[in-house]
Prior knowledge:
- The chain is 39% helix and 21% strand.
- It contains 14 helices and 20 strands.
- Helix 4 crosses helix 5 and helix 9 (209-232) packs across helix 10.
- The termini are far apart.
Amino acid sequence: MLNKVKSAIERSDMIKKGETVCCALSGGADSVALLIALQELSTELGTTVSAVHINHMLRGEESDRDEEFCRELCKKRDVPLTVIRKNAAAFSHSMGLSVETGAREMRYQIFSELSADKIATAHNLNDNAETLIFRLARGTGLRGLTGIPPVRGNIIRPLLQCSREEIEVFLAAREQSFVTDSTNLTDNYTRNRIRHKIMPEMNAIHGAFPECVTALTASFAEDEDFISSEAEKCKNKDLRTIHPALRKRAVISCLKDHKLEVTASRVSEIEAALLGDGGKISVGGGLTAYIRNGKITIHKEKTEAIDSVKILREGEYPFSSDRIVIISKVNCEKMNSSDIVNKKLTTDVLDYDKINGGVVLRNRLRGDRIKPAGAAHTRELRKLLQERLPYGERRICAVLADSDGVIWAEHIGAAERVVPDSSTGRIMKINITPSDKL
Length: 438
């Protein structure tokens, strides 16, 4: 078994020389074998081994017995031990989870707070097979069929190639005892039912069932890794044009980029919008996914609106919570006429004397229309912005209007009727800048 552990560590590059490895020690056979294996290999691997025991406070005296066993074992083997007592039932209730699921979430939360370089858990060959059956029963895609990963972040699983029988033989050879969790003997938990009822039947069909499952999940893992890497390359493409297998993974990757929860319903909803008319979907965390032309952008939805502000003089006008619109007027006598009519310049420069009545700064309103500089026809401002911006951004575009309508719009530029020409005497310049830049 020791050779299998060493091989697994080296194959998956689980531990580097000089790192500290903390063994998650429950006191059961698997975790005790893992602790001993890591300690026996520590000199060869150049690692420092410690342990952590989490008392879930679920089984009264039995939980305390397990804690005491771990204390004695680590003392005997001169392994530094951290003991954490936390009520798994209370934690699970507060999170709205079953005790089985909540206890697992609690453990990994604790693991994330430990200072060791790597946290080693004692999942073995049989656990991997049980996990596959569990996921099949609940429904899963290819990713779920990849089984328990050997490495996930700083969590490592050196026993994944070792069967439960090998673990018990390893402990017997060292005359090492272990404790048994009485809840593992009942069928109160889903995994126990799989272990006690389904696994024996599968082993009766094929004696090497756990080994076959591990080979299968390894093959699935390779396929999943390849497909996901291809999907990463497609995230900025038109997702309507790629294979559904890549599209789903691209959607998942977009959600994960923003640390959002990935659920089948959320992925399906976004995919439907991609293949349909687009739109916006709330994805949690105060974020919204904007879907347009087969692409996804995710950011905070900006819904701020401002009251109309009269532009009475040059100056800085706050617009929304994070931008400033700066208005300035320039006499053109000192400017070159070619600069005034330069096409690029017309995007933020208006002929001041062509403006009719007063000027107001505001958001876009329903029914706003504009004939952009150089355009042949007047169009709805809403449709022009729709062609250029995701939904959330076009809702907060700055607009300048006079008594005859829109004379300038952010991202669109000046209206044809107020574009400077060679006879322009005065111009109005518009600049928008983030408020934190001033």
